[in-house]
Amino acid sequence: MPSKTADIVVSDLPSNKGERLSERVYENLFHAIVTGMIAAGAKLPSENELARQFEVSRPVLREALDKLRDDGLISSVRGSGNYVLNALGSRVDDVPSDEADRDALQRIGDLLAGIELRMIVEPQAAYLAAKRRGPSDIESMRAALDRFDQAMKQNAILHHHDYAFHEAIATATCNARIVQTLKSLEYDVTRSVNLMRFLVQFQPFIRNEAVRDEHEEIFRHIEAGAATKAKRAMRNHIEHARIRMMSNRPGF
């Protein structure tokens, strides 16, 4: 196996109340692996280094690594360390089984259903946020956008910063049910392993800059109190997210 150790940048990751630390570490490493931030065959940093970067204990880190092994995303070599497996847990010559394909297709359907629900909920949330936002809401949105931008510049993990922006919008609606609904749809990476294994065959192209620009447009309209424009911008953002996820054309 290659001996080059992967560079992992962890930038000011927020910790959600009630979220287990091991889940936070697992989800961020999972996201970094399936999006290609950590290349196949790369060696992960040592457990001590990862624990330091994520600011967790080694037992917490090991729990997260155990889940990644169970998913087939990493393997351990005694005396050497942990390595990211080819693609997403499979060998080059592996052929997905019919059962795996069916499972992946079902998960794609589940994810598309979630996006459909977001298309109903989040544009209206943006509309209400533009009507009801206070100074603290604007500060929370701006902080999430700044963390996303900084993480992108560092080639760091973006998942939590992306969600934090959407959560800040939901919070600005002053409607707890909207916040609860959004939390139930938080990209659900812990159930997405087989889905990502399926999609990786088509090398989906992730455009972080496009996401950032779309977020900025939504924020401008909410900050200005332009509710109808904020609603339209959010709807466009979610539709573009669906297209980016499903498109198999790098030049799209």
Question: Can you offer a commentary on this structure?
Answer:
With 252 residues, the protein is mainly alpha-helical. It folds into two domains: 95 residues, Arc Repressor Mutant, subunit A; 149 residues, Up-down Bundle (Four Helix Bundle (Hemerythrin (Met), subunit A)), CATH 1.20.120. It is built from ten helices and two strands, in the order H-H-H-E-E-H-H-H-H-H-H-H. A two-stranded antiparallel ribbon has the order 1-2. The longest helix has 35 residues. The C terminus is likely disordered. One of its GO terms (molecular function) is DNA binding. InterPro entries: GntR_C, TF_FadR/GntR_C, Tscrpt_reg_HTH_GntR, WH-like_DNA-bd_sf, WH_DNA-bd_sf. This is FadR family transcriptional regulator.
Summarize the structure.
The chain has 252 residues and is mainly alpha-helical. It has helices spanning 21-34, 47-54, 58-70, 98-132, 135-153, 159-172, 176-184, 193-199, 208-224, 227-246, and strands at residues 74-77, 81-84.
